[in-house]
């Protein structure tokens, strides 16, 4: 027994209705996906704007460098400063420094970046380094990279001759080590001398054959810091 004309028309209408419903469902799903994408874009924009507003404040671009100057500490510090440099190219960098020193060569890496970023080095970031507690050895060199060098009232600064670990078995190894120490001093001594307005020889006379421990007032008088605070 065949399907009558009315029944066939009814089935056709049902198919058409189902197809229309499918299209409407797909269109609704597409609109929902587009709305969710727009909302996600808006959230990202709001996050980026909030980050930018935070970066515009001096307080946000503050880094606490505490501990030894070594590969890990320098890498961590540079990662944060590079991020701020990308996000806010003119954000002032405020670094609180508490360190007894460490690796000269890792310190040189950080020093070069700080000078390049600083206003006095031709960069766009006004850099303030504030000593809290102690800045000794390589840390005292890092202090000299800043536009503004500050020591807290209860802080000390220590500068000394380049040193090496004992245990060199061969004469040639000792000669190589002495050569490395000379290179270190040719790097650091002119930095201190230039910032303090001294000749290199005048600076070397300050620390030769001894560790030079300085109070904030003494460091300010010589010219190794700009202010106490």
From TrEMBL:
<dbReference type="Pfam" id="PF00574">
    <property type="entry name" value="CLP_protease"/>
</dbReference>
<keyword id="KW-0175">Coiled coil</keyword>
<dbReference type="GO" id="GO:0006515">
    <property type="term" value="P:protein quality control for misfolded or incompletely synthesized proteins"/>
</dbReference>
<dbReference type="GO" id="GO:0004176">
    <property type="term" value="F:ATP-dependent peptidase activity"/>
</dbReference>
<dbReference type="GO" id="GO:0004252">
    <property type="term" value="F:serine-type endopeptidase activity"/>
</dbReference>
<dbReference type="InterPro" id="IPR029045">
    <property type="entry name" value="ClpP/crotonase-like_dom_sf"/>
</dbReference>
<dbReference type="GO" id="GO:0009368">
    <property type="term" value="C:endopeptidase Clp complex"/>
</dbReference>
<dbReference type="GO" id="GO:0051117">
    <property type="term" value="F:ATPase binding"/>
</dbReference>
<feature type="coiled-coil region">
    <location>
        <begin position="18"/>
        <end position="45"/>
    </location>
</feature>
<protein>
    <recommendedName>
        <fullName>ATP-dependent Clp protease proteolytic subunit</fullName>
    </recommendedName>
</protein>
<dbReference type="InterPro" id="IPR023562">
    <property type="entry name" value="ClpP/TepA"/>
</dbReference>
<dbReference type="InterPro" id="IPR001907">
    <property type="entry name" value="ClpP"/>
</dbReference>
<comment type="similarity">
    <text>Belongs to the peptidase S14 family.</text>
</comment>
């Amino acid at each position: 027994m065949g399907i009558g004309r009315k029944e066939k028309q009814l089935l056709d209408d049902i198919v058409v209705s189902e197809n229309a419903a499918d299209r409407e469902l797909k269109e609704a799903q597409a609109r929902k996906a587009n709305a969710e994408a727009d909302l996600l874009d808006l959230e990202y924009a709001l996050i980026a704007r909030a980050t930018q507003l935070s970066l515009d404040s001096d307080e946000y671009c503050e880094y606490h460098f505490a501990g030894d100057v070594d590969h890990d500490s320098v890498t961590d510090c540079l990662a944060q400063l590079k991020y701020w440099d990308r996000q806010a190219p003119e954000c002032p960098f405020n670094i609180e420094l508490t360190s007894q020193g460490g690796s000269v060569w890792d310190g040189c890496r950080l020093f070069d970046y700080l000078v390049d970023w600083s206003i006095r080095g031709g960069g766009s970031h006004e850099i303030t380094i504030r000593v809290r507690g102690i800045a000794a050895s390589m840390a005292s060199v890092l202090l000299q990279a800043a536009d503004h060098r500050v020591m807290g009232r209860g802080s000390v600064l220590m500068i000394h001759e380049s040193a090496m670990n004992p245990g060199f078995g061969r004469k040639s190894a000792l000669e190589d080590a002495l050569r490395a120490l000379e290179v270190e001093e040719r790097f650091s001594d002119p930095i201190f001398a230039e910032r303090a307005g001294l000749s290199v020889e005048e600076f070397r006379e300050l620390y030769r054959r001894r560790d030079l421990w300085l109070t904030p007032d003494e460091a300010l008088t010589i010219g190794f810091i700009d202010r106490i605070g």
